[in-house]
Each structure stands twice: as structure tokens, then as C-alpha cells.
Amino acid sequence: MTPRTSLRLRLLLAGAAAVLVALGLAGLGLAVLFERHVERRALAELSLHLDQVIAGLDRAADGALIQARPPADPRFAHPLSGLYWQLESGGRRLRSRSLWDTDLSLPRDDLQDGQVHEHRLAGPGGVDLLVLERSVTLPRRLGAARARAAVAMDRADIRAATVAFSADMLPFLGVLAVALIGAMTAQTRVGLRPLAAVRARLGAIRAGTATRLGTDVPDEVRALAAEVDALLAAREADVVRARARAGDLAHGLKTPLQVLTGDVDRLRAAGQDALADEVAEVAAAMRRHVDRELARARLARSHWGDATARIDARARPARVVRGLLAVLRRTPAGARLTWHEDLPEDLAARLDPDDCTEALGNLLDNAARHAVAAVTVTARRDGAWVEISVRDDGPGIPPGRLSEVLRRGARLDSAGVGRGLGLAIVQDIAEAWDGTLDLENADPGLRARLRVPAAAPAADVVPPSLSATA
After folding, report:
1. Which of 39, 217, 288, 362 is the most buried (most CB within 10 A)?
2. 7, 140: one domain
3. Per the database record, which ranges form the Histidine kinase domain (predicted)?
4. What is the pTM of this model?
5. In three state form, how does the secondary structure of the chain look?
6. 426 lies in a domain?
């Protein structure tokens, strides 16, 4: 199963990719939002430090401006700690001990009194700094001069906090991804479940237990179901018409074949045996094809003509075999044999009664022609199947030629009276009803095993073809 052939896998892969991309973008967005939040908190902290820097100014005895009360944060006293302050007024520059012997290279701003600017500058050692700058007018006791104060923080702390937040967030994103993919998988299964029902209906149509998909399907596939139903109806009509024409053609050839048979008798009476043999051989070949088409035409009408009747079809092998044996025992080939039968009366197969008669009639006739003394017919229920076995005690078939027998018109006994179509017709009937026909040597004899779907026991169904002979 590949994404190219599986709609479910394609949806799952596309959904999983969408979930991962969405969560990746969400994680990136949350990291950016967290960084901005931390930066705002840092700016608030810098604003507080800036107020402390300005509030701590005083004058020395010589009138010079000094920082009498430096900010309380101890990082200002440690060299290159990542937290710095600087103040410029009247050509004099004061700075925190943390700056050591460097200055903050503030841009040339035209700040109004009390105005605050934010900057991102390079600091000591080339580090990236977040700078908050304010311009103030000092009070008269400090000389009433303009002062430019700035406080800076290393942005590495902000980035470290963002990285730590992202690392803490990843497991939760992973759990969320698993939960979302699991929910999407369940949603896909629920969403595609009606398609499984449609597939089951198609299987039922193929098995002969349903005739149409119907309209009880999701809106998205209703048009497809309607097209499939229309196609099924058109195929049924086409096959029925084609088989009807084949049947008409076969029936039309029956009369000329009867004429040829009469001509053969007249030729033999006239002493033209060689010519009579040639005409008889041609007529026999034509009759084989006519009989084959007649059987297939009837089988097609049974298979396609009435789908509801196909679904409800039931045949009782015991009844069918009993009726057939009543006829075979009156024939020269059947009268010389001992017939053994073991078929439960309540055993029912999902098979048209006429098709059942045709199939078992050919199997019994074939066994009667090749048996030495006895033929055994048994039937049993095997799960969802009915298995009917016909075994003779004849010479059997060479193992290498078993597959040849079921080929159209094949005959291993060219001197016999059969036309080589009986077993092939049985195979056609088995396949039409989703069953199988198997042949195997039974030592002695040949066993033909017909398997067809089983049906629940129902009212007795007697084939019309046997009602007059049973």
C-alpha cells in the first residue's frame, strides 16, 4: 500500500504533515511571543534602573556631578556583568563599574525632555545590548543642566530564556502532535468507513447477494454509486440481449443440422460412407457449438436476467440427484451400474434449480459413461459452501491431462459418443455462481468435486425440468 494507491494513507500523510507544520509554526510563534514578552519585562526593569540612576545623582564638594546612590542591583558593580548604566551631562560622563573601561556608543538622538528611546547596540566585547535611553533636565541644585542617561542589558539573557522556554515547550508540542495525529487517524477511519461499506456492497454484487449499490451512500460518492448502478443495469441488458441473440442463432441452426443428419443417412444408404462420415463429423462439430451456446445462453439469462431471483436461488442437491437418477437408471449406460448416494435432504445450495440440474446431469452422465460397475454421489456442508462429489470406478484420467478435460470441446475418448462439452458446461455454471469444479483421480476412477455457495434451508424448490420425470 502506497500513497499513490491508498486514499487512507494519502490522507494520513497529508494530515500528519499539516499537523507537524502547524505545530512547528505555532512553536516558532510562541517562541517569538515569549521573547517579546521577556523583552518587555526587561525594558520595564531597565526603566526602573534608569530611574534609580537619575535619582542617585548629587554634587560633590567641588561642584562636580557624582553618582551618590548607585542602583541597588549588584551586577552594576561587577565588570562585564551584562548590566550597565551611563550618564552624560555638561561634558562629564559617569558610568557603572560593570562597563570597566568602555563606554556605551549611543546614537546621536534629538530627545525631548523626559523622552525615552530604545536601542540595540554593540556593547563591551561586541555583545548585543538592549539599551533604554532618556533625556532629562536636572534640578537646580544639580545645575539645571541637560543629562542623557542610559541603561543597557545583554540580550544574551533574553535569548537564553527564549531557548529554555522552547526546550520546555518541545515535549508538550510532541505530545500534542501525537494526540492530533491520533485524532486525525480516527477521523479518517470514521470518514472513510462509508467507502468500506460501498466496497462490501460491490463484493456482495459480485458474489450475487446484492444487485445494486443503491442510494444509501454518502453524498460525496452518491453520483459514483449511481453511475456504477447504471453501468450494471446496462451490462445486464447488453449481456441478456447478446445471449438471446446467441440462443436465437443456435436455435436457428438446429433445423439445418437436422437436415444434415438426414443427408448423412441418405448418403450411407447410397453407399457413400466416406462422404457421409465427413458430413457427420462437420455436423457433430456444429452441434457441439450449438449445444454449448444454448447452455451458455440459458446460464446467462439465469445469471443476469433476474438479479433478485439469483439472490434468492436455492436448489436441493438431494432432490435434483434423485430425479436425475430416476432417468439415468432407465438408460443402457445407467442400468448396468450400481448407484450409491449420500445427500442430506435439508442441504440447500445457492444455485438456480435448472443450473443445478444441468451441472449434476452432466457430471452423472460423464460418470455413467466411464464407470465400470458403480458411481457414488455425496454432498456435505463445508462452512459457507456446499460440496457435491461424483465418483466413478472407471480408468480415470492420466494426471498430465486432467487440465485438458475442462477445456472447451476437449475429449480424451474420441471414439465415444460424448461431445466433450459436459464438464466445460459444469465449470461455466460453477463459475457463474462463484463456485469451482475440481477433478482428481480417485484410484480407481475419477472424482468430480463441485463447490457452490450454501443457502439457508428454505421451502423445497423442484426444477421444472425434473417435475415431470421425478
Report:
1. 362
2. yes
3. 248-456
4. 0.49
5. CCCCCCHHHHHHHHHHHHHHHHHHHHHHHHHHHHHHHHHHHHHHHHHHHHHHHHHCEEECCCCCEEECCCCCCHHHHCCCCCEEEEEEECCEEEECHHHCCCCCCCCCCCCCCCCEEEEEEECHHHCEEEEEEEEEECCHHHCCCEEEEEEEEECHHHHHHHHHHHHHHHHHHHHHHHHHHHHHHHHHHHHHHHHHHHHHHHHHHHHCCCCCCCCCCCHHHHHHHHHHHHHHHHHHHHHHHHHHHHHHHHHHHHHHHHHHHHHHHHHHHCCCHHHHHHHHHHHHHHHHHHHHHHHHHHHHHHHHHCHHHHHHCCECHHHHHHHHHHHHCCCHHHHCCEEEEECCCCCCECCCHHHHHHHHHHHHHHHHHHCCCEEEEEEEEECCEEEEEEEECCCCCCHHHHHHHCCCCCCCCCCCCCCCCHHHHHHHHHHHCCCEEEEEECCCCEEEEEEEEECCCCCCCCCHHHHCCC
6. yes
